[in-house]
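S.,

Sequence below, as promised.
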Amino acid sequence: MNLKKRAREISTYASTSIEDNPLPLTDVKQILKTNQNLRRSKQEVINYNKALEELNKNLQKGSTSFSLNLILSIQKQVIDKLIPRYQAGKLRVEQAFVNNPRKGKATYYQLKEKL
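The prediction came back faster than expected:
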């Protein structure tokens, strides 16, 4: 198996699981192969993987620099079809939910000031 593909599968699984996506790694791999009739959790996996692929292509071309615009662009790709479009590619100012799968409990972050 292609090492880059395997790394993307694992990264997609790990990153979506901290956002409370319940799918195991085996399901993530299958979703990335078939890419059909997606539930929310599956759509998130597809979106995240596409964002990784695009970022990797841009890094290989040397056309990517780390910036707020890059972060917002990736965020927009990852949440495509998951939240209202008007929220896509914007900084979130409300409380965010993050799951800690190792501890099996949620962590909440609250922004102290508007950015």
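Strands lie at 96-100, 105-109.

Coffee later?
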